[in-house]
Amino acid sequence: MIRFLLILILLIGVLLGGYTLLNRDDEADVGAHTQLMPTMQTSSFGFARAIEPYDWEFPADHGAHPEFQTEWWYYTGNLAAENGQRFGFQFTIFRRALTPFEPVSDSEWRTNQVYLAHFTVTDVAGNRFFQEQRINRGAADLAGASVDPVYRVWVDDWQIKGISATQTRITAEASDFSVDLRLEPGKPPALQGEQGLSAKSAEPGNASYYYSQSRLSTEGSMTVNGKTYTVSGATWMDHEFSSGALSDQTQGWDWFGLQLDDGRELMVGQIRLVDGDKDPAFSGLLVEADGSTRLLAAADFTITATGTWTSPHNGAVYPSGWEIRVDIGEAEPLELTLTPLILDQELTEGNVYWEGAVRIEGDATGYGYAELTGYLNAMRGRF
């Protein structure tokens, strides 16, 4: 969704502090962590902007777009073990350029790119949420993104890698949890917004280039607290790149990627403004069972919270449970009820936000993921 803004906050400490380190010419065994130093450009000046519809070319556009300031590869899935036990997972790798130019150096350590990964697992039966993050420079094979010779995005030994013409594999191991998953697309990439140009406000350039692989058949293994499960289910993938930002009136956003049991997928969201209104520029997308898509204007759907949850970690109050209504042309409106699989799916390392697995009931059933930001601190003035 709009993680190009989230990553500005997630990485601000490293980006402000890491530029000097990332330009070192020595080959010491160092990462991207360092003390805060105001030496790095945070402006998007000099980077490419998302202004007009994009001319997509796959598989090349699965890779990195370094002319843009920020990019991410986002995977969330709802999986079930052979005994019926349910799990959710998020695996996201972010790329952030520190400057619009690549440094000239013979050193393999020197780079203007930083990569960060977020990895979470939701254990529904155990009512547990596991989270970990990693960060490293995009150099010396420590982190990066490529499609040559195969699609691969990685931070350290956490990675997404193509293993056949269509299939990818996610492998990540954290302290108490890990995944080894194989993903196969059932539909072509779905372009969000206007041919992949997804506006975030009325200001030209406040947009991203954005496509989704809305249903990836998934199977493999998941280990939680030393116990390994054989799992299967479906994963949602977003790939987005931009040099834009939301307006300074943005409070935060709510985003939903939903996979319905009837073979359809739905992305809806809302950008919340500080005065309580919603920015009308953001749109949604309905992906039909045959892979065709229907663009949804902000006026075509409503998102209504049905309850709240107060974080025991910081006191933030999030919506928890939603009614979503989607008007689909001449067809009957689609009315859905979303319920978090567990209440506490809040990421508390770095920037604080809620991202978790949800159950879908109503006119259709299924599972999905929700992302909620701006409930602890407003986004305005941060980027």
Set out the fold topology.
Blueprint: H1 3-10, H2 12-22, E1 70-81, E2 86-97, E3 113-123, E4 128-137, E5 143-146, E6 152-155, E7 158-162, E8 168-173, E9 177-185, E10 190-191, E11 197-199, E12 207-224, E13 227-242, E14 250-260, E15 265-273, E16 284-287, E17 293-296, E18 301-305, E19 308-310, E20 317-319, E21 322-326, E22 334-340, E23 346-347, E24 353-362, E25 366-372
Antiparallel strand pairs: 1-2, 1-13, 2-3, 3-4, 5-6, 6-7, 7-8, 8-9, 9-12, 10-12, 11-12, 12-13, 14-15, 14-25, 15-16, 16-17, 18-21, 19-20, 21-22, 22-24, 23-24, 24-25
Q: What composes the largest sheet? A: 13 strands, antiparallel
Structural class: mainly beta
Radius of gyration: 20 Å
The overall average pLDDT, rounded, is 87
Order of helix and strand elements from N to C terminus:
HHEEEEEEEEEEEEEEEEEEEEEEEEE
- Residue share in β-strands: over 45%
Shape: globular
Number of distinct helices: 2
Unreliable spans are: 1-41
Instruction: Give the N-terminus to C-terminus distance in angstroms.
Output: 17 Å
Total strands: 25
Helix content: under 10%
